[in-house]
């Protein structure tokens, strides 16, 4: 894919992918998923986690804020599973990606170093095999609009990923993702829809 150098953005994966490895009789099943929000990542992790497995460890890096990472060792010694999976995603320079690695214990303990290599290796080898896609950079925006503007504002927001929303007594507050290059246009559309009665801010 050709990407213009002046377009801010990052790489993600195009579609889910699954990869399996055996390490000293333990079975490691790595599954990668293109998740835009924590809600999507959480739903994916819950869907693929196997109750009968020894562990279901995971990590997630959002595209909107690559520092807002999440990871979990699911009972493995601290730092031996979730973090190596996270580091595998970072090593591939990907965002908007969730990876869950399921382990079925094979009877041989791997030790701290062995676990780090096994979880990180399974995740990395899974990601290496995925198809990549370029995504334009987004920022998180918060707006607050009067309730009588909700209809036309939702028509605008249907073009974006909503992160959170909260109804008040007289207004609606919504957080959503917008492309950096489109911020000015989106803000103007929201203000026009509310006849200037909208608060608009980029969330740092």
UniProtKB/TrEMBL annotation:
InterPro entries: Impact, Impact_N, Impact_N_sf, Ribosomal_Su5_D2-typ_SF
SUPFAM superfamilies for the chain: Ribosomal protein S5 domain 2-like
A single Gene Ontology CC term: cytoplasm
Record domain Impact N-terminal: where: 24-127
Annotated TM spans: none
GO biological process: regulation of translational initiation
Family, as annotated: Belongs to the IMPACT family.
Name the record gives this protein: Impact N-terminal domain-containing protein
Annotated organism of origin: Heterosigma akashiwo (Chromophytic alga)
């Amino acid at each position: 894919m050709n990407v213009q150098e002046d377009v801010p953005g990052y790489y993600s994966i195009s579609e889910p992918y699954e990869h399996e490895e055996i390490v000293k009789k333990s079975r490691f099943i790595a599954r990668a998923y293109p998740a835009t929000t924590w809600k999507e990542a959480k739903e994916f992790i819950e869907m693929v986690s196997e109750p009968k497995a020894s562990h279901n460890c995971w990590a997630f890096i959002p595209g909107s804020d690559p520092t807002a990472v999440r990871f979990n060792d699911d009972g493995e010694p601290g730092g031996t599973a979730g973090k190596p999976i996270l580091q595998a995603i970072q090593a591939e320079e990907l965002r908007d990606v969730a990876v869950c690695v399921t382990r079925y214990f094979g009877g041989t303990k791997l030790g701290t170093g062995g676990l780090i290599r096994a979880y990180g290796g399974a995740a990395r080898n899974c990601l290496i095999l995925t198809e990549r896609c370029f995504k334009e950079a987004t920022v998180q925006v918060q707006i607050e609009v009067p309730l009588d503007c909700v209809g036309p504002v939702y028509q605008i927001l249907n073009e974006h990923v909503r992160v959170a929303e909260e109804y008040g007594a007289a207004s609606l507050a919504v957080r959503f993702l917008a492309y950096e290059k489109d911020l000015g246009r989106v803000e103007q559309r929201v203000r026009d829809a509310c006849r200037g009665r909208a608060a608009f801010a980029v969330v740092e």
